[in-house]
Amino acid sequence: MASKLLEKAQWLYKNGMNELALNLSNEILKANPNNIDALEQRAKIFVSLDFYRNAIEDYTAILKLEAESLIRLNRGDSYYKLGQLKAALDDYSMYIEQNPDDSIGYFKRGLIHSEIELEKEALNDFNSAIEYGQDENNHETIVMYQAKLSRAVIYEKQEKYIHALSDLDDAFDSAKFFMDLFPTSAHVVELILFKVRLLRKLGEFENALNVINDVFVQFLLDSDNDMRLWQAIQKERRLILSELGYESCVIDHSYLSTPLKNFLSSSQFSNAMYN
Fold this sequence. Notes:
The chain has helices spanning about 1-15, 20-30, 35-50, 50-65, 70-80, 85-100, 105-115, 120-130, 140-155, 160-175, 175-180, 185-200, 205-220, 225-245, 260-265, 265-275. The relative contact order is 0.05. The protein has 3 domains: about 1-100, Tetratricopeptide repeat domain (Serine Threonine Protein Phosphatase 5, Tetratricopeptide repeat), CATH 1.25.40.10; about 100-130 and about 140-175, Serine Threonine Protein Phosphatase 5, Tetratricopeptide repeat (Alpha Horseshoe), CATH 1.25.40; about 175-275, no CATH class. The chain is built from 16 helices and no strands. It is mainly alpha-helical. Helix 1 (about 1-15) packs antiparallel against helix 2 (about 20-30) and helix 4 (about 50-65) packs antiparallel against helix 5 (about 70-80).
C-alpha cells in the first residue's frame, strides 16, 4: 500500500502537483515515520516549495537512519538556500570526504568559499571540480563548465586577466552550440560582457570592439531583449570607443566580421532599423 502511495506521490511531484504530493507523503509518514523513500520524496517537495527548514528536518531524519552521502549534499543545498553557510560548508566537506572524486561537492563548496572571500580555498575547490569534472567519455560536464566560469571570476578579482580569459574561452568553446542557438539570452550576453571587460582590462580594445559589436547588432534586431543587458552593452561599447578615440557611437564597419558587414549593408538590416 505504502509503495503505491509513494509512486503516486512521485508522479504528482514530477507533474508539478506539489500540494497533493505533499499530502500523500505526509500520509505515508504518518503510518511509518522512518520510511526513508517517503522522507526523501517529501524533502524534495519541500525544496520545490522553498520550505528549506522542513527539507533539512527530513534530510536530517534520513541521515540518522542511514549514512547516504547524497542526502548530505542535498541538505547542504538547503542550508545554503537559507544562508546558513557554515552548516552548508560542513555538509559539502563531509560529502567530499565520502566522494573524493566527485566534482559537484568541490564546486558547491567552492561557491561558499568564494562567497566568504576565501579565494585560495575557492580556487582549490574549483581546480578539483575541473579535474574531476569530465564524464566517462572525457567530455566536459556542466559542473566543469560552471567551475571554470567561477574560477575566471576569482582570477579577475586577482587581476590575473589572462588566466580569467583562458577559462572564459574554454567555457565559450564548451557552450558554443547553446551560444549560437540563443545569442541574445541573458546568460550568453553576460558571458560576452565578461569577455569584453577582460579584453578591455588587457588593453585589447580592438578585439573587445569586435566582440561587443556582434552582440550590439544582434540586440538591435531583437525587440524582446532585456533593457538592463542592452544598457550594459551600450556602456561597455562607449568605454571601448572612448579608449580608441572615437567620438561617435555609430558602428565602425572596419571592426566587424565580414558576414556582419554584408548584413549591415543589406536592405534587411535597413528595414529592421527604420521600418
